[in-house]
């Protein structure tokens, strides 16, 4: 996937004459680091948390499978987000700020809390 992105940047640069490679190398490197770290976390969770492997079908078994998958995926996702913020990947920080902003608006049901929301957004971005 990273090779694909790099090749697309090169092709775009040749067609338009705009140099995007220096600007995107740091982004691609940071994204590669974050992906490897979250992949390692997912692998460790896979080793620690067993997946139920029964041949029979039941609603309880399916719920257990879903919970097992969530217990593996959620820590890897959180590690991805935390590492992205720590490495200061702007796109992830903006998405996180937007999610927090919308969650704060939803939880306060439209009450006037703009000051607190702006402070939260400034801390993240």
Structure description:
With 125 residues, the protein is an all-alpha fold. The protein is built from five helices and no strands. 81% of the residues lie in helices and 0% in strands.
Largest sheet: none
Beta content: under 5%
Radius of gyration computed on alpha carbons: 20 Å
SSE class: mainly alpha
Mean pLDDT: 79
What's the total helix number?
A: 5
For this entry, what is the oligomeric state of its chains?
A: single chain
Contiguous runs where pLDDT drops below 50 for at least 5 residues: none
Tell me, what's the shape? extended
Number of strands: 0
* Helix content percent band: over 70%
Q: Report the order of strands and helices.
A: HHHHH
Cα-to-Cα separation, first versus last residue: 27 Å
């Amino acid at each position: 996937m990273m090779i694909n992105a790099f090749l697309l940047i090169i092709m775009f640069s040749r067609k338009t004459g705009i140099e995007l490679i220096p600007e995107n190398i740091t982004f691609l490197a940071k994204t590669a680091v974050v992906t490897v770290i979250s992949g390692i976390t997912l692998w460790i969770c896979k080793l620690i948390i067993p997946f139920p492997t029964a041949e029979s079908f039941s609603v309880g078994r399916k719920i257990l499978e879903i919970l097992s998958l969530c217990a593996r995926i959620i820590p890897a996702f959180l590690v991805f987000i935390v590492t992205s913020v720590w490495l200061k990947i702007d796109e992830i920080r903006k998405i996180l700020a937007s999610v927090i902003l919308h969650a704060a608006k939803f939880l306060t049901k439209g009450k006037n809390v703009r000051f607190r929301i702006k402070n939260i957004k400034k801390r993240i971005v």
